[in-house]
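Annex B.
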Amino acid sequence: MASRIDQEYQDLKELVHRAVVERLDEEGIEVGKAAKSTLADFVRVSVSDYLTANKVPLSTQDLSLLSREILDEVAGFGPLEPLLADPSVNDILVNGPGDVFVEIDGLLQRANTRFINDDHVIRVVRRILSPLGRRLDESSPMVDARLPDGSRVNAIIPPIALDGPSMSIRKFTKNHLTANDLLQGGSLTREGLETLLAQVTDRRNVLVSGGTGTGKTTILNLMSQHIPREERVVTIEDSAELALDHPHVVRLETRPANTEGTGRVSARDLVINALRMRPDRIIVGEVRSGEIIELLQAMNTGHEGSMSTIHANSARDAMVRIETLLAVNGYDASERAVGRLIGSAIDVIVQLARQPDGRRYVSEIVEMRPDTDDPYRMHHLYRGASHGESALA
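CpaF family protein: predicted structure tokens.
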């Protein structure tokens, strides 16, 4: 019964939305140029007029809700508007019109939000992409783009997505966690923090390792804040999430191919270029492809104190992951040579973990101490505990 009533409301919402858009056109009102308050008044009156003309009974509360949602449709991103405005929401995952999930404090949960139908989802995605000059249609069914506020959106539609359009948004936040936040949240101890920051001041090459959603960018951002201010830093990211309060930072961001399949600038291209920019340190947001070759070589040739992150579930797994990246990207060398390259380039691995309840913490900090028998011999500098609340985001 509840689902039938909800569907009736969604059907009504679609009809009202069309009527309001037609009335905007008739009045010659340009949404992009009109003040939000003016639009809000216009939408409220138009919705009320439609309901009266069509004899649709609606309570004052429901009328207010419908007017607000229609305003979001006209001037914003529809059902996504309240989620985008909620600072507690880190990720928005749309699996279809009625399946919307959000991540809050490390936990995925179903949102009390839905779209009208598949076309509604696609319409909102296209509205997001429109000012970015990106397209989403049958000939180009996948898109990955960065919004003006730094958030990252990925969308995929049929025929590639078999069950309907899907979208994920990784929200960008300017409220980066401080060292005290991590201490108070139980993500690491005072000893762990001192060990972590010592790696920065000692110019150690650091790899932050962890699974999806373990807070790798948070830790990388925290460490980057403590780079001496007289040093020149070049950052390379797929989407700019690092926020360095530093006087000498050059920020570089990758670029996907355009609709013609040209113009792509990869992380590897940017690392190669960064080496020509006289950096003291290079920070790569995440290594996931051929950029690992140039980064390791940079770490071995005078760019001490460089940092990056990698997806791996343990420090040892991180080494295997790097070996795999080197192999699939054409680094032709013996197993021994590869081990020596990795073992001599990376000084410290910071391993992050995430509990089933969403708690995230620094599980260990290990120092690489390679020898002739084991290029990946490790020594623990810090071991974390998994109990307590987690601040990592």
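The first helix runs from residue 2 to 27. The chain has a mean pLDDT of 87. Further annotation is deferred to the next reporting cycle.
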